[in-house]
Design brief:
The strands form 3 sheets. The protein has a two-stranded antiparallel sheet with strand order 1-2. The protein has a single domain, classed as Jann2411-like fold, CATH 1.10.3300. The protein contains 6 helices and 6 strands, in the order αββαβααβαββα. It is mainly alpha-helical. The protein has helices spanning about 15-20, 40-50, 65-90, 95-110, 130-145, 175-195; strands spanning about 25, 30-35, 60, 130, 150, 160. The model is unreliable at about 115-120 (pLDDT under 50). The longest helix has 25 residues, at about 65-90. The protein is globular, with a radius of gyration of 18 Å. Bound molecules: zinc ion. Zinc ion binds next to loops.
Amino acid sequence: MAVDWTPHRFSGGALALDTANTVVLRGDPRGFDRFADAAEIARFADAAAHHRGEELVGRPIVVADAEAMKDGVVELREAIDALFRGRAAGNRTPAGALPRLLRACAVALEGGKDAAFAGTGPAAAEPVAFEAAVAMSALSLLCDDASQRIRICANCNWLFLDRSRNGSRIWCDMAVCGNRQKARRHYGRRRAEEKKHV
Ligand SMILES: [Zn+2]
């Protein structure tokens, strides 16, 4: 069934993190990969052009051949997740994660033939290859204090960029994950109460 690429699925706050989050419940036996069907890469890219318009400075994203690019996109995605999840979890870069990410970015930029993604002016309207856009997003997260603001959602395990002033966000999306956690806690309390009365 085709994925509905809702705004919630772009809770990462940066294209690279949204891409990492296309694996749902990562590490959990119930987890699954939304890119298992290569056609979803193109559909995700279309939605990303809309939801990540600011990051992309309005440039449209191009997916030339989703099937052909799938392995490269998946390797790039996994390299992004390994590095930023490792940093978010332990405040340090896991061994080997940086060269792996840089290699995947290099492949993506060569394949995409369009590294000049940042900036404004006449180039702003030029299309950018999807894998190049994801690579540039990942590189931008390495280069400033953004990596200090990457968190792991306490509910769904997604990565997200915490732009709040005091840097204390817990959930990727308060409206979805925050409420689920609250409901679970409420349910847990009720169960505990019920048990007392048995
Ligand atoms: Zn979440």
